[in-house]
């Protein structure tokens, strides 16, 4: 390149003779621009002055022009009218990191690839009005990295052609740019949002928050989560995420101009149309965007008459309407007409109102009048009928047109909510119904009782509390399918028995409630109860099984037995328990005596809950003896409860309460540890290892890791497993689940003796008995007390003894109280017994005294 720095012939030639005046004019305009730095203006002014001073010497002027041109510290480029680069100073070559030859003769886009189409139009428009054009853009270096610049452009004539001189100031180090940038965005009446490289929303101006409906303490990023919105293309179809303008701008690194999209908010059921332009933004020295800026405006109103908008309304089941109050002309979108589904779409507001149910017509007219008088919007859910007679539900929203102070026009939307209403009704029914039987559920019947008690005209009611006898036996033995079938069958029988005499609900488990009025018939509750008992007189069947199920019923009346729902139900519940305890398959009316019983029960349960912490329990030990020789061979630990207010309590007075409340689990753990502690103490006293039998409740068996607990207690007192016998109720026989079998196997591995207590009373089934790895059976006192005179008891004892022998199990008889019983049991082959014939439950020291002497107990002849 020569020192003269002549421009290429293919572009334009700026000579000293014919270009000095034009260049001087351009430099004069640039040097007077107050937005440029003083040092830049000074250098440009010096260039101007030099040209004026040396006009007679073109070569000298040109040399001085280039010297001063290159002295400008910011990039300066000269462009022709089309945007072709004619000249570039040294600062420009340094900034763009390219040799001059790669730039001269190229379009300006080689330095600024992000310029939109037609970008020179507003430049020349500003210059032609005598002003300097200023813009902030992103320029690109040779390596692809970007840097922000502020470009000041001025025009001049060269050879009769219009040219530009453009000065670019690097903004990378500008400290206050962000502040001015945010201030500008806040005053613009268009929505502007900024998203980071992961498309999380980091900023939104006031207009954006208003247009998007973001308010209160909600963050923009939370409000704009994708699951809350649906984006729609121009053709009305759902826009996939890959087509979102912000996604495209971030992915392609280019401006996405004026994209029309629909923004539908799922929860608000609101659709807006937006015109969106998205600009990628680059950090200094970056080759890909670090964020995108979206500028948008709401064009929903412009879309009102568009078929495209009608299509999207159909997708969202939302239509629009506009009413001219003066002419009574009504405009409906296609979707609104479809929702109303009349033979001819109504053309007036009265015509649309006539589509509604009579009561809702009044509400709609009142809402319209209210808007016209006071200017307030309305939002109604109304019911109507289509031309085919089918009912519909519609949500109507309306209000005045903005900028119409006379409220001569109203606009709004129609949304088809028929399916929503049907769904709400289904949920309402489901929320009030028991899913198994279809009867009312607990919440529904409580609501009905509460409503009746609150209404003096209906407050005289009775509650029948029904509990199925022996339901748990069927459910446990035959399984839950049989239990569900039984409950459904029982519900059908109760429904037939009650008829129209009362409301029926499944209150929980195998419990049902009937609520009937006593206003016109005082005897109705007892009559209904008898009818229900009659309905249970026939046996129930499941597959090949047939079994009898009866019911126990408690009756309570309002207001005598309770003025609140829960009080009334508790009274009926207490009466039901009394009926079940005394007779079963019967009914009982609540009495004050039952109220006292109920209070006593609550009192016992209250004290029982604190008994373990207060050290109120102690154990007594009943000897198990050799029926032939009379010597003590083991002991059964029996719990006693001494309470300062209740006195001495035997197990049959409180164990049932403990089972109900769940306290049995803590009590059982205490008994296990205390029995093992006592066995260890006897051992330490030189009495040897005495096997102690401990009862394990069914709830304790299910609730605890029993095998681990037993292992821990035995280890604590250094006892062998053979020192402990665990007695289970027959209920565990039916629990042949893998966990149950595994627990029994682990206990047996420890040497613990496993026994089924009171065998024959409840769930006995041989196919279950043979599956469990147990050691023995205990013959129930219920059968022992009738021998040898009662033939039935004799037969049961013989059968149990035969089962034990056939399965190789040990056998212990409980409740031996007479010599005749002992001899009968010996003849039957029962080796061990316990009962008052030998000793009651003994204190530990008394048991130890007898154990030391260990003399035969009772007549052994």
Automatic annotation (TrEMBL):
Domain EAL: 601-855
PROSITE patterns registered for this protein in UniProt: EAL, GGDEF, PAC, PAS
Positions of the GGDEF domain: 459-592
Top-rank lineage group of the source organism: Bacteria
Domain PAS span(s) in chain numbering: 61-114, 177-218
Residues in PAC domain copies: 378-429
Designated name of the protein: EAL domain-containing protein
Protein species of origin: Luteimonas soli
């Amino acid at each position: 390149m020569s020192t003269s720095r002549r421009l290429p012939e293919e572009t334009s030639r700026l000579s000293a003779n014919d270009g000095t005046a034009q260049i001087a004019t351009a430099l004069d305009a640039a040097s007077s621009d107050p937005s440029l730095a003083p040092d830049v203006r000074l250098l440009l002014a010096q260039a101007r002055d030099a040209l004026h001073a040396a006009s007679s010497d073109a070569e000298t002027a040109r040399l001085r022009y280039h010297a001063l041109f290159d002295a400008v510290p910011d990039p300066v480029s000269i462009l022709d009218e089309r945007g072709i680069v004619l000249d570039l100073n040294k600062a420009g070559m340094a900034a763009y990191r390219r040799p001059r030859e790669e730039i001269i003769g190229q379009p300006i886009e080689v330095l600024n690839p992000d310029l939109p189409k037609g970008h020179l139009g507003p430049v020349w428009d500003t210059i032609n009005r005598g002003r300097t054009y200023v813009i902030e853009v992103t320029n690109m270096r040779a390596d692809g990295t970007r840097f922000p610049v502020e470009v000041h452009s001025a025009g001049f004539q060269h050879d009769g052609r219009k040219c530009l001189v453009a000065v670019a100031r690097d903004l990378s180090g500008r400290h206050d740019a962000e502040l001015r940038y945010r201030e500008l965005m806040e005053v613009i009446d268009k929505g502007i949002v900024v998203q980071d490289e992961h498309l999380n929303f980091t900023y939104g101006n006031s207009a954006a928050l208003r247009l998007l409906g973001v308010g209160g303490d909600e963050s923009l990023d939370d409000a704009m989560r994708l699951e809350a919105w649906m984006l729609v293309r121009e053709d009305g179809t759902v826009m996939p995420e890959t087509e979102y303008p912000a996604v495209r701008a971030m992915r392609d690194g280019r401006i996405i101009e004026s994209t029309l999209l629909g923004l539908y908010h799922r929860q608000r059921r609101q659709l807006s149309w937006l015109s969106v332009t998205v600009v990628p933004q680059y950090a200094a020295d970056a080759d890909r965007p670090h964020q995108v800026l979206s500028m948008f405006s709401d064009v929903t109103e412009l879309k009102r008459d568009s078929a495209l908008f009608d299509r999207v309304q159909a997708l969202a089941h939302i239509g629009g309407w506009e009413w001219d109050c003066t002419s009574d002309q009504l405009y409906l979108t296609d979707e609104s007409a479809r929702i109303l589904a009349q033979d001819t779409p109504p053309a007036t507001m009265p015509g649309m109102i006539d589509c509604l149910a009579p009561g809702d017509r009044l509400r709609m007219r009142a809402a319209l009048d209210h808007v016209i008088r006071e200017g307030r919007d309305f939002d109604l859910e109304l019911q109507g009928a289509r031309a085919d007679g089918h009912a519909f539900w519609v949500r109507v929203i309306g209000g005045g047109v903005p900028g119409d102070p006379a409220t001569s026009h109203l606009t709004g939307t129609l949304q088809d909510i028929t399916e929503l209403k049907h769904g709400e009704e289904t949920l309402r029914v489901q929320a009030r119904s028991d899913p198994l039987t279809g009867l009312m559920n607990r919440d529904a019947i409580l609501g009905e009782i509460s409503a009746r008690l609150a209404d003096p005209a209906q407050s005289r009611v009775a509650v029948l509390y029904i509990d199925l006898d022996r339901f748990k036996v069927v459910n446990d033995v035959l399984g839950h399918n049989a239990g569900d079938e039984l409950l459904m069958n029982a519900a059908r029988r109760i429904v037939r028995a009650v008829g129209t005499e009362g409301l029926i609900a499944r209150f929980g488990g195998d419990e049902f409630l009937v609520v009937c009025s006593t206003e016109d018939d005082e005897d109705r509750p007892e009559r209904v109860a008898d009818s229900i008992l009659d309905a249970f007189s026939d046996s129930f069947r499941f597959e090949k099984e047939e079994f009898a199920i009866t019911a126990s019923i408690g009756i309570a009346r309002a207001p005598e037995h309770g003025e609140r729902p829960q009080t009334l139900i508790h009274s009926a519940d207490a009466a039901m328990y009394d009926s079940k305890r005394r007779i079963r398959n019967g009914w009982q009316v609540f009495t004050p005596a039952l109220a006292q019983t109920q209070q006593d029960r609550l009192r016992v349960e209250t004290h029982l809950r604190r008994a373990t912490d207060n050290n109120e329990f102690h154990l007594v030990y009943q000897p198990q003896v050799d029926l032939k020789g009379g010597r003590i061979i083991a002991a059964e630990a029996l719990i006693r409860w001494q309470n300062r207010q209740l006195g001495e309590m035997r197990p049959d007075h409180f164990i049932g309460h403990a089972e109900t409340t769940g306290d049995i689990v803590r009590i059982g753990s205490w008994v296990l540890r205390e029995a093992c502690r006592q066995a260890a103490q006897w051992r330490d006293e030189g009495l040897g290892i005495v096997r102690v039998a401990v009862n394990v409740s069914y709830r304790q068996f299910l609730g605890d890791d029993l095998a681990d607990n037993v292992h821990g207690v035995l280890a604590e007192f250094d006892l062998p497993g053979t020192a402990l016998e665990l007695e289970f109720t027959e209920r565990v026989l039916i629990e042949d689940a893998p966990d149950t079998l595994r627990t029994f196997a682990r206990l047996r591995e420890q040497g613990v003796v496993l026994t089924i207590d009171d065998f024959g009373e409840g769930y006995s089934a041989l196919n279950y008995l043979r599956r469990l790895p147990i050691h023995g059976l205990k013959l129930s006192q219920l059968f022992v007390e009738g021998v040898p005179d009662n033939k039935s008891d004799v037969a049961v004892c013989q059968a149990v003894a035969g089962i034990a022998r056939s399965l190789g199990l040990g056998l212990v008889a409980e409740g031996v109280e007479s010599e005749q019983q002992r001899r009968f049991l010996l003849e039957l082959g029962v080796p061990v017994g316990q009962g008052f014939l030998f000793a009651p439950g003994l204190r530990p020291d008394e048991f130890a005294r007898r154990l030391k002497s260990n003399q035969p107990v009772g007549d052994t002849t």
